[in-house]
Specification:
The protein has about 350 residues and is α+β, with helices and mostly antiparallel strands. Helices cover about 40% and strands about 20% of the residues. The strands form three sheets. A five-stranded antiparallel beta sheet has the order 6-5-4-3-7. Strands 9-10-8-11 form a four-stranded antiparallel beta sheet, covered by helices on one side. A hairpin with a 2-residue loop joins strand 4 (about 170-180) and strand 5 (about 185-190). The radius of gyration is 29 Å and the shape is elongated.
């Protein structure tokens, strides 16, 4: 590549890093004089790269918003980060775009990479395994996500068309607080003035969003993540489980699935020793009980099952299976004793 062209591309890369770049700094980085820098800038302007001049003591050049995307200059690390982000985002549901959009974006980046770098990235992507099965995550429609995000940022009310899990359709006016991505799905937490309370909505069940005139004042110290997780944990399920576990909320909560459990510390009983360990109330709403005994065993803390009674039997059966396995010898499995 001729050196003037290489320097023009280097200039573009420097401008893409953001901020105002003084002419003297650019001249030093490119190893040319300031007059040549201005000539290189003009070459970028000639190919519709939106470079603007900023006058004054701290003036220089910067990239301005343009109607078309300027050529991107990516280092090896940046190219790998972008491609891995597209792959991981598509698999986890964090990419707010269709699979086709993610694939075409990846193809465009790969097509302009040098052969050496393309081979290395192909080796990484070809050897990469992701544990989440494809198709599990649900990415939101950008036509839904973008106006909701704008309304959250500017505290604007919105009107949506929503289809509930049971198929009922409704049109609602909401005050959106935040957008949360959790476990492969996207959620919006919002106040529903017609229902006089907060609600959680899945973005993939929203078919239309309109930003309405006016504004609202969100509650102080709003925590959309906590509201969404609490909403998921208190949603109606087949079984309502109530437990008492010894320990503090901070010790127990990280060991339980996020979005399924609601914890609260219990008051100390009358006559309890001042140094006695605290207990917590743990409430869960689940469709199945069979996985809970293993989770409770992993807590490695004393616990008591208040309800349902069925869970007590499952815990006893799980404990018996563990005890039987602990007593089982290699001969019981048809295996010879290991040679020491």
């Amino acid at each position: 590549m001729p050196r003037p062209i290489a320097r023009v591309l280097t200039l573009l890369e420097l401008l893409q890093s953001g901020g105002i770049r003084p002419v003297s700094e650019l001249a030093d980085r490119l190893n040319v004089d300031e007059r040549t820098v201005r000539r290189y800038v003009q070459r970028l302007v000639d190919i519709d790269v939106p470079v603007e001049s900023v006058r004054g003591r701290y003036g220089g050049y910067r990239l301005a918003p343009g109607y078309r995307l300027p050529p991107l200059m990516l280092s090896d690390d940046e190219a790998l980060a972008v491609l891995l982000g597209l792959v991981a985002g598509r698999r986890s549901g964090l990419t707010a775009a269709t699979d086709t959009a993610s694939e075409t974006a990846s193809a465009k980046i790969r097509r302009v990479l040098p052969e050496r770098l393309r081979r290395r990235l192909d080796a990484v992507l070809g050897s990469l395994a992701i544990t989440d099965p494809p198709g599990k995550a649900t990415a939101p429609d950008p036509g839904v996500l973008l106006p909701i995000a704008e309304a959250v940022h500017h505290h604007r009310p919105i009107s949506i068309r929503y289809t509930a899990g049971d198929g009922r359709r409704s049109e609602r006016t909401l005050h959106p607080y935040g957008v949360v991505a959790h476990a492969g799905r996207w959620y919006m937490t919002a106040a529903d003035p017609s229902a006089d309370g907060d609600r959680t909505f899945r973005l993939d069940r929203i078919t239309d969003v309109r930003i309405l005139p006016g504004s609202f004042e969100p509650p102080a110290a709003i925590d959309p993540v906590k509201r969404v997780l609490t909403g998921l944990a208190t949603a109606p399920y087949r079984h309502e489980v109530s437990l008492r576990v010894q320990g503090t909320v901070g010790e127990i909560q990280p060991r339980l699935p996020a979005g399924l459990a609601v914890l609260s510390e219990l008051p100390s009983p009358d006559g309890a020793h001042p140094g006695a360990a605290p207990w917590c109330r743990v409430e869960l709403r689940v469709d199945r009980l069979d996985w809970l005994p293993a989770v409770l065993a992993s807590l490695d803390r004393p616990f008591a099952v208040d309800r349902p009674v069925e869970l007590r039997g499952l815990v006893e059966a799980f404990a018996k299976r563990l005890a039987d396995s602990a007593r089982r010898s290699p001969q019981d499995c048809g295996a010879a004793e290991p040679v020491s």
